[in-house]
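**User:** I keep going back and forth on a fold encoding question. It is easy to fool oneself when nobody else works the same problem. Could you pick a protein and write out its sequence and tokenised fold? Could you put it straight underneath, so I can go through it closely?

**Assistant:**
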Amino acid sequence: MPAKMRLQRHGKKGKPFYHIVIADGRAPRDGRFIEKIGTYNPITNPAEINIDLEKAVKWLQNGAQPTDTVKAILSYKGVLYRLHLLKGVKKGALTEEQAEVKFQNWLNEKMAKIEAKKKGLSDAERTERKKALEAENKVKEAKAVELAKKMAAALKIETEEATVETDTEAGTEE
């Protein structure tokens, strides 16, 4: 049975954390594995992925079949692109130096995109907090105005009662 590249689940209920492993296709999901090549944490935004590129490429060249999720992760990290470039080198379409330059350019572009996403997420979070704070302040101001009206009405009633009492006292003294 060929080797499979798959995720091995760890972590608490509701807080998954995965190891990316090479396992025999007959082994259970969280069971025995041949080699651990990385980790995947989907809780963070963007997801945190640590993978040994060289080991992953070696296993793919040896015929390991990734699951759909692992294939997406490998594509995201550039392992499949690296494998593609190495096949081009093997066929003689380009040299190893050219392949390395192409891969480094791709990697730099990918890192720039990830940093832009992180910055966009932090900016969006900041604007969300500002909006929430402004909405909370509006509610506080509305409550303060309502309370002031109630206090003014109560004070007006008290002053009317006081004048009525003083009028009745003045009338009884005469």
Remarks:
- The mean pLDDT is 86.
- The beta strands are 3-12, 15-24, 35-41, 48-51, 65-66.
- The chain is about 65% helix and 20% strand.
- The CA atoms of residues 49 and 73 lie 8 Å apart.
